[in-house]
Amino acid sequence: MKNWWKESVVYQIYPRSFCDSNGDGIGDIGGIIKRLDYLKELGIDVIWLSPVYDSPNDDNGYDIRDYRKIMNEFGTMEEFDRLLAELHQRKIRLVMDLVVNHTSDEHSWFVESRKSKDNPYRDYYIWRDGKDGKEPNNWGSCFSGSAWNYDEETGQYYLHLFSKKQPDLNWDNKKVRTEVYDMMKWWLDKGIDGFRMDVISLISKEEGLPDGPAMINGYASFNVAANGPRVHEYLQEMNREVLSGYDIMTVGECSGVTLEEAAKYASSEGKELNMVFQFEHMDVDGDPDNKWTDKKMHLPDLKAVMTKWQKGLEGIAWNSLFWNNHDQPRVVSRFGSDCEEYRERSAKMLATCLHMMQGTPYVYQGEELGMTNVPFETIRDFRDLDSINAYHELTEKGIFTREEMMKYIRYKSRDNARTPMQWDTSAYAGFSESAPWIMVNPNYKRINAKEQMERETSVFHYYKKLIALRHKHDIIVYGSYELLLPDHPHIYAYIRTLGEQKLLVVCSFSSQTVTYSIPKEFESGTVMISNYETGERKCGELKPYEALVILQS
Ligand code: GLO
């Protein structure tokens, strides 16, 4: 079935780092409004806006104090309304982040909840007695340490799968669900076009909260709570009571999701959400019980995971396609090459590889410029509590040395994605007039939007072409997918098919020239897009990081 959200390309804005309009070093809504023509020029259809709600910013807005208020640092509700109107005028839709697995500990519900055991809000959160003087179970927080915090006031522990300042809501309480649905309707009635649902796969916790297998730091992964017993019941209820009343797009961030579960969350029958974010391809350069390594990705593993999801959801549910977001390091430094010689080629190759697949592609701010990881020097350069906590926990426990940990967080830290958007060569990369809340990547004089918009061969223009192609060719959106050469160590090649039409996508992940012959049936086809000029390409081989898309004629 055809749907607008299947034919769209989404652009994610992390507002703190996008553009600062009032010179306080923090991005804001006014800054986004200033850059809307840039986004229009890129050609994207939808914006996913990371949280802009009132928050004490323990986790940069993913800890919400008031769901119906805009964070002071970001602006006012009037400015938000203007943003929405300006976007709609440009025919761009707006999807908001919905963070309802937890609130801030400063949310009025939690302030009440922690007051006494018989407070009417007590049961809005998950409170338990300790076990033998210790935490109620071995669950770990995603941001290091135990997922339980002891509260002196009432002598019980509350659950927080993320930071201590992000207590988990108790979704088994019908009142909580009703409050959430009312809040969602309030935003939808304002005219927003959907929700990206933060860690939505974690909302239903298994009865009895049983221990889980321990990871490298001794705790069970926060993912023990993934795909709990009533999660589908709750999402179906949310769909009936809220989502089904609007023409919107919904995407669930589903950490720990399996194919079978995804087929339920994002089933084409439309009972729950439109699509899910799965993270298996983000684990190909990690260890099962530890993300902090600098292990390199092995291409056949990446192909196997991507193909599993491409084939596994075909005709059943819908994929979302991403290499980057505010939680991941920059893909060009991770799966491509950020040395100057190959940065642009590999950024374009990675974009081709992803954007030609079936699903809705997401572009994270700066990805369209081939922005890279950041040369952070010391632990003091980091702002992200995940990286900082992990650094301290794992070095203090003697699991890694400080040098090792620095190497790992430099490679994997979420802060790599959170340095300011690089607009031009002026001070602070044109992001702000004063020193930003986090350092600017020193490579901004070379890598910035202004330079790339002016140069036809830039990564920016390449993304623009890819987005335009998706809008023009149904085969890119709806074609089926078939992997070629599953074991080849350097080439990712696949075929898309729609009716009589066939499309060949070939991407080299190597910095060397590799031998490759185009399948006969595509020899006389038309090149739809490539990151090398016709004259530069050579029959029988692929140049370093070459990407080639051929439509059979
Ligand atoms: C991924 C989120 C992340 C938040 C977390 C807590 O897991 O996108 O940025 O820190 O979910 O809300």
Secondary structure elements and their pairing?
Blueprint: E1 10-13, H1 29-34, H2 36-42, E2 46-49, E3 53-54, E4 66-70, H3 77-89, E5 93-98, H4 108-113, E6 127-128, E7 148-151, E8 156-159, H5 174-190, E9 194-197, H6 231-241, E10 249-253, H7 259-265, E11 275-277, H8 299-313, E12 320-321, H9 331-334, H10 340-355, E13 360-364, H11 385-396, H12 402-412, H13 449-454, H14 459-472, H15 474-478, E14 480-484, E15 491-498, E16 501-508, E17 514-515, E18 526-530, E19 541-542, E20 547-551
Parallel strand pairs: 1-2, 1-13, 2-5, 5-9, 9-10, 10-11, 12-13
Antiparallel strand pairs: 3-4, 6-8, 7-8, 14-15, 15-16, 16-20, 17-19, 18-20
Question: What report would you give on this structure?
Answer:
It is globular, with a radius of gyration of 23 Å. It folds into two domains: 10-102 and 174-375 and 423-466, TIM Barrel (Alpha-Beta Barrel); 479-551, Sandwich (Immunoglobulin-like). Strand 14 and strand 15 (491-498) form a beta hairpin. It has an eight-stranded parallel β-sheet, covered by helices on one side. It has helices at 29-34, 36-42, 77-89, 108-113, 174-190, 231-241, 259-265, 299-313, 331-334, 340-355, 385-396, 402-412, 449-454, 459-472, 474-478, and strands spanning 10-13, 46-49, 53-54, 66-70, 93-98, 127-128, 148-151, 156-159, 194-197, 249-253, 275-277, 320-321, 360-364, 480-484, 491-498, 501-508, 514-515, 526-530, 541-542, 547-551. Helix 10 packs parallel to helix 14 (459-472). By secondary structure, it is an alpha/beta fold. It has 15 helices and 20 strands. The protein starts with 9 loop residues before the first strand and ends with a strand. The model has no long low-confidence stretch (mean pLDDT 97). The structure holds D-glucose (GLO). The site of D-glucose (GLO) has 9 residues, from loops.
